[in-house]
Amino acid sequence: CLTCHFTFQHIICHLTLMCLASIYLSESACFQMQCQASNEEEIHAVLSEQSLYPAGWIHTHPSQTCFLSSIDLHTQFSYQVMLPEAVAIVAAPTDPTRSYGIFRLTDPGGMDVLRECSESGFHTHRETTDGSPIYETCSNVHFKPNLRFEIVDLRSGA
Ligand SMILES: [Zn+2]
Ligand SMILES: [Zn+2]
């Protein structure tokens, strides 16, 4: 399984336009058909060396549907706390309804739930106080097929 982190080269005008500039590949440990990045620290060190902000992350659900698990929600929270525009991309090639999704936690609804949650592993979350869903599909993502980007492979050779 592969987990990728990416950075946006330009964040223009808050939520209107974001450009994918770099993709960072990292080692992932797979368990129960879920994937967890195992060297996030290394990625963040490389990014800060280059003065880049992680603007989101992408991972696969090889045999599951396209959604954010409770673990994914906590990962997304850690990104969205640092950058409110950060997104979680899930690639789910075997989901017949949609093969990928771009998600974010609702703010303040989902962000408040995650901020107060200290559980780990797979667990359920309480409802949001304002009745909104915990996370939503991003409506502010623009696709630009011609953008140049750079892939940095941090995986070890093994
Ligand atoms: Zn997931
Ligand atoms: Zn939780």
What letter string, H or E per element, gives the SSE order?
EEEEHEHEEHEE
Total domain count: 1
CATH homologous superfamily title? Cytidine Deaminase, domain 2
Classification by helices and strands: alpha+beta
User: What average pLDDT do the residues reach?
Assistant: 76
Number of DSSP helical runs = 3
Distinct small molecules bound, one entry per kind: zinc ion
Main sheet makeup: 7 strands, mixed
Q: How many strand units?
A: 9
At the fold tier of CATH, the topology name is: Cytidine Deaminase, domain 2
The name of the CATH architecture is 3-Layer(aba) Sandwich
In whole angstroms, how far apart are the ends? 14 Å
Cα-based radius of gyration, to the nearest Å: 15 Å
Shape by Cα distribution: globular
Name the CATH class: Alpha Beta
Helix content: 10-25%
How do the strands line up in the largest sheet?
8-7-6-5-1-2-9
Which regions have little confidence, pLDDT < 50, spanning 5+ residues?
9-21, 29-35
Keywords: Signal
GO molecular function, one term: metallopeptidase activity
Organism: Aegilops tauschii subsp. strangulata (Goatgrass)
Protein name: MPN domain-containing protein
